[in-house]
Specification:
Chain lengths: 131, 282
């Protein structure tokens, strides 16, 4: 077991104190952590799932456009934050692990270490009023 | 390796009779290898005496800075080997996102704060940025890793093949944690301290003082003990004593925390002038 970088630890600690749903991704797209507000949105509990691989998180939570078409991985804010190392924002539909479908806004930003290395991405989800 | 404390105080030097047991100088620990290698951990006011105690024929010394807060660099300009052209001095420390180590150090080592410029020092000076992967110095393999403290800050893990010393003088791993300590992999500094023979760790506050100093970058004695237990260390030395605490208060706070936490390892306050030989004898 390796310890995460302090920047990731601090981001997780901040996320744990906020009421905004936040998912923390590692540099290869694996889900490292999601906070309690995100649990409600994603329809699963971190204590039960633990960290999730990219494939596993895709299997549990589906991201689609309003017509139900899958959003390509490369077009998702998390992938843009990780791949292009820049912030990204998008609107989409999310089908949570418990089957609930919601309209959401998603904002992602890359976590770049002081020395410049990519550590991961923090992704905020926000449920839209209109459904 | 031999580990000697030359400065144990946090934040501000506090000389005087009331602090003569644990010392009033700010952070500086000298580590000597079996081959004579000399490593200074931080350059608080204690480094002046550390420099004076080094052999005159020493040709290389490495100073490992954890961060550039004043109490960790204030003695640097008074470190004798910096003024000896026959000595190679290697300074290791963190850059920031916008400034290199020399630029950051020069804010202090330049007028009006100091009369001598960093570039004018007579020694053969080499600056290195950390963290930078494993560092080899003499018999030591050293790892620097960023830790939780305001501004760019690292802790150090020094191994010589026989023992491990971990030095994290300014560290607040409990910041934001709901139930400290949590998983090791989500605990700042854990990898540095894992199974260390000696952990030198921030313990500036009592448990009662800590809540009013959240986010200042320091630990309570209880959190230092919990962190040491999580990391499985063999011995813990409380470091970075609060400048407001005299010798009696340092002893009393440490004793109360140890009695309360009952650690499976020995724990005591760092005292200026004291040394530890690692690995410890039977």
């Amino acid at each position: 077991m390796a310890q995460h970088a302090v920047e990731l630890i601090l981001t997780r600690q901040l996320a744990s104190c906020l009421s905004v749903p936040i998912v923390l991704f590692g540099p290869t797209g694996d889900v490292l952590f999601y906070n309690e507000p995100a649990e409600a949105l994603l329809g699963m509990r971190f204590q039960e799932t633990g960290p999730l691989t990219l494939v596993e998180s895709d299997r549990r939570v589906r991201l689609t456009d309003e017509r139900g078409a899958e959003i390509p991985r490369a077009a998702r804010p998390s992938a843009i934050a990780l791949g292009q190392q820049r912030p990204a924002h998008s609107q989409m539909w999310m089908t949570a692990a418990d089957g609930t479908r919601r309209a959401v806004e998603v904002t992602a930003f890359p976590l770049l270490a002081e020395a410049g290395g990519l550590l991961g991405a923090a992704v905020m989800f926000w449920e839209r009023d209109g459904r | 390796m031999k580990v000697t404390f030359y400065g144990t105080r946090g934040s501000l030097a506090t000389p005087g009779r009331a602090t003569e047991r644990y010392g009033g100088n700010t952070s500086c620990v000298l580590v000597r290898g079996e081959d004579g290698s000399a490593l200074g951990l931080d350059a608080g006011t204690g480094i002046r005496a550390a420099g004076a105690d080094l052999p005159r024929d020493l040709r290389r010394v490495d100073i490992l800075l954890t961060h550039l807060h004043m109490d960790h660099i204030q003695g640097l300009g008074f470190f004798g080997p910096l003024y000896n052209p026959r000595v190679e001095v290697h300074l290791w420390g963190p850059a920031s996102a916008t400034a290199a180590l020399d630029a950051r150090l020069s804010r202090y080592l330049s007028p009006p704060l100091f009369p001598v410029l960093l570039r004018d020092l007579p020694c053969r000076l080499h600056l290195h940025h950390v963290p930078c992967g494993e560092i080899k110095i003499g018999p030591f393999t050293i790892v620097a890793q960023s830790v939780c403290h305001p501004g760019p800050t690292v802790g150090y893990r020094l191994a010589d093949g026989r023992a491990v010393l971990t030095y994290i003088p300014d560290h607040e791993p409990a910041l934001g944690a709901r139930h400290f300590p949590e998983d090791p992999e989500w605990t700042s500094g854990w990898e540095l301290a894992r199974d260390a023979d000696l952990l030198v760790h921030d313990a500036q506050y009592t448990r009662e003082e800590y809540p009013s100093h959240l986010g200042w970058g320091h630990s309570s004695l209880h959190d230092a003990l919990a962190f040491g237990a999580l990391a499985g260390v063999r011995r813990l030395v409380f470091f970075h004593h609060d400048p407001a605490r005299d010798d009696h208060a340092v002893s009393a706070a440490a004793e109360a925390a140890v009695v309360d936490a009952r650690p499976a390892f020995s724990a005591m306050p760092a005292a200026e002038g004291e040394s530890f030989d690692l690995p410890a004898g039977p």
